[in-house]
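Study the following:
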Amino acid sequence: MSKDRILAFGCHPDDIEFMAAGTLALLAREGFEIHLACMAGGEGGSPTEAPQVIRARRLKEAEASAKLLGGHFHYAGGYDLEVEYSSLYRQRTTRIVREVDPWIILTNPPMDYMADHEETSKLVRTAAYIASVPNYDCGYPTQATGRFPYLYYWNAITLKDIFGRPLPVSCRVDITSAIEDKAAMLAQHASQRDWLKHHNGYDQYLEMMRGWSREEGSVIGVPYAEGFIQHISQGHPQDNILKTLLGDRCHPVV
């Protein structure tokens, strides 16, 4: 029997795998029920395939990734490059948060290289707060949750904001024992090797992920790590639950 539910909610189908899958793998080993969600279907992620074709492919890749942890996958129904902080997107995001009713949420950071990521961060942050408000109608037959979840943002792509500055990471998780799980999950997104090579000039996207994980790990003296920023504003729990659950594998920034 699983202990509780953990939701990783990214913008695109591979966001989670690049930045947070190692921590999810560790939590899955501890018996937690893992849920992965994406806001958009990745419709822009191909130089050759039509939007609806690449979306179907990418959603299947995301579902396959979740299954590697015995987890579940959810799609919010958004569209790549069109994610916006709007009533429609708030409803879609809140629907998933209410359906999962997670104890812990991980999501994109408030500042990242692409606006879709930043809008997703804001939407998930809002949904984490208003999912428990009974009078908020999210447009779907779902019940309000009964708790505020712990909320964490994973680090930005390339580990820097749009001005080249590091984000205020509050803890790093040693994922050395889970790096191959993380790589296997990211490898499910095979469609993205062609896209990243075409659009960003990246080829070995798995090695790119390992490079960022090594850089995070070097800060705490381990081979691989992932960084997180805890959301500790009003309502949400203030203690670092990742430290409680993962013990010595979680290194708070002091």
